[in-house]
Amino acid sequence: MSDIIQSQSRFSHSADTLRQIARDALQYAARQGATACSTEVSDGFGQAVTVRRGEIETIEYNRDKGLGVSAYLGQRRGNASTSDFSPQAVRDTVDAALSIARHTAQDDCAGLPEKEMLATDFPDLDLYHPWLLNVEQAIELARECEQAAFARDKRIRNSEGASVGVHESHFVYANSLGFIGGYPSSRHSVSCAVIAGKDSAMQRDYWYTEAREASDMLKVEEIGRIAAERAIRRLKARKLGTLQVPVLFEAPVAASLLGHFVGAVSGGSLYRKSSFLLDQLGKPVFSPAIQIDDIPDIPGGLASSAFDDEGVKTQRRAMVEQGVLQGYFLGSYSARKLGMKTTGNAGGSHNLILRPGGLNFDGLLKKMGRGLLVTELLGQGVNHVTGDYSRGAAGFWVENGEIQYPVEEITIAGNLKDMYRSIVAVGNDMLVQGSRQCGSVLIENMMVAGQ
């Protein structure tokens, strides 16, 4: 509660003001003939400082606010937005949304969610923790982070900078079904990227930490040290020939595999038939060892929320059990297009967790024996319609369960459908660096193309 009280003085507008603006927009829309309406009002600020080689590179400070309105005339919908909170601007935004709706074609799937699906309980999920950090303090933390990297090894010769970011915001969502809700949230981060070696033998790497509460992040010295060690270990990288071998995705890059899964089983991709996982509900899409959960109520979670972008109550769901797809990510519109009900995922997945297995990172290396450890992915070579996968990569060659030497300028290729089904193990080295969380992932076999 103290955080919420404190938030009133940190934002440009109080939560009560945001609520009143939302109510005014809905009431005016009804007077102008809207059959339904929804609105979101938000206010936030951010501060970001970057230091490079001990000198201030950038200082950014922003304050943002916005009002978005979706107005309906039957099943015709119009959307408009503004950053002006004056009463006249609010009315003008509603009028603009209604004008667009009048010129929009009927859509049988348009409309607000069913009233019974809306959230009525709003638990405190511990999402707001102000970081009372002034610019001078942020600069000092960034310098300490970068200096820790330089101090780790004399082979760290240059830096792309260390950054410290603070972001805090709050919002209110309301609709004409009587729903109104909102909350403040925070998201803070520290990152560092450094360069090891010199001339043509240089290698770059980075590390970062992110959390709702500053005290939950790694210490800045730890971030710098890890960034340095990751850059150093890539020195004297070699190239590989073309071969088929097991591939171990290190935890930070393994999370991208979850991202492709989310896209494939989200409503927009499904009703447009642009997904490589069409018509797979109730079927095995991963190896039997895989369990994936969507958990919206983790206290302090980076994607936690009691309701989705439409006010629909969120719920814990097992998305994949023993490799079998159990559900989709649907908002009300995509659900209607598919003849289904919303899953409380308007806006996407929540905290998506790939349940860890029993092996640590070293155990995964031993299980792989001989193959490629991937620590960086490059490019965007993923076809979400067919599942074809081809990404530039860098990492390490592994023999007898031990890292032998770094490798670079390689491409890994396969098809996501085959890759998912051939996951051999998931490590317990889970990282929390975003909303999609997993340990390292070992895939039985992929094509590796080098020289």
Textual characterization of the structure:
By secondary structure, this protein is of the alpha+beta class. The protein has 10 helices and 17 strands. The strands form 3 sheets. The chain has a 6-stranded antiparallel beta sheet with strand order 3-2-1-4-5-6. Strands 7-12-13-14-17 form a 5-stranded mixed β-barrel. A 5-stranded mixed beta sheet has the order 10-9-8-11-16, with helices on one face. The longest helix is centred in the first third of the chain and has 18 residues, at 135-152. The radius of gyration is 24 Å and the shape is globular.
Indicate the radius of gyration in whole angstroms.
24 Å
Q: What share of residues is helical?
A: 10-25%
Q: Residue ranges: pLDDT <50 for 5 or more in a row?
A: 1-7
Strand content: 35-45%
Mean pLDDT across the residues is 94
Secondary-structure-based class equals alpha+beta
Largest sheet: 6 strands, antiparallel
**How far do the termini sit from each other?**
60 Å
How many helices? The count is 10
The number of distinct β-strands equals: 17
SSE layout:
Blueprint: H1 2-10, H2 15-31, E1 36-52, E2 55-73, E3 76-82, H3 87-102, H4 135-152, E4 156-175, E5 180-196, E6 203-211, H5 220-232, E7 243-249, H6 251-264, H7 267-271, E8 292-295, E9 317-321, E10 324-325, H8 332-337, E11 351-354, H9 361-368, E12 371-378, E13 388-399, E14 402-415, H10 416-421, E15 423-426, E16 436-437, E17 441-449
Parallel strand pairs: 7-12, 11-16
Antiparallel strand pairs: 1-2, 1-4, 2-3, 4-5, 5-6, 7-17, 8-9, 8-11, 9-10, 12-13, 13-14, 14-17, 15-17
Helix pairs in contact: 2-3, 4-5
